[in-house]
Amino acid sequence: MIKWIRLRHKIPAPQLKHLEELTVKETAVTFGVSPHVVYYWIERGVIDARKLNNGSPWWITIDRRKERELRRWVSKSTKIQKLRAQDSKRGL
Asked: I need a surface site. Which of 8, 25, 59, 66 has the fewest CB within 10 A?
């Protein structure tokens, strides 16, 4: 039924996530930050991300150089460290 509706109204099928791409949640877990930080990185062009349209999720590509850069950023960020400390006190 969905396939027919897409065909009838010329709506392309959603593009699948590539194997090397991460979701916002996966990126947040990988770097030990909140999803808000990942969205900040996307908005500022710090990381490469793509989405098919307004309703689709972000798919993020991070190469080794960028991964090292982000890990350094996270380790040196006093704001992120402060938030981590608050979360650990609350048992999160």
From this structure: 8
Beta bridge partners of 50: 59
Phi, psi for 4 (deg, rounded to 5):
-65, -45
What is the CB-side half-sphere exposure of residue 52 using CA atoms within 13 A? 11
State the Cα–Cα distance between residues 85 and 82, nearest whole angstrom: 5
Please state, in angstroms and rounded to a whole number, the distance separating the CA atoms of residues 33 and 80: 7
Per-residue pLDDT reduced to its tens digit, 5-15: 888 888 876 66
For residue 38, give the nearest of 15, 18, 17, 61 by alpha carbon. 61
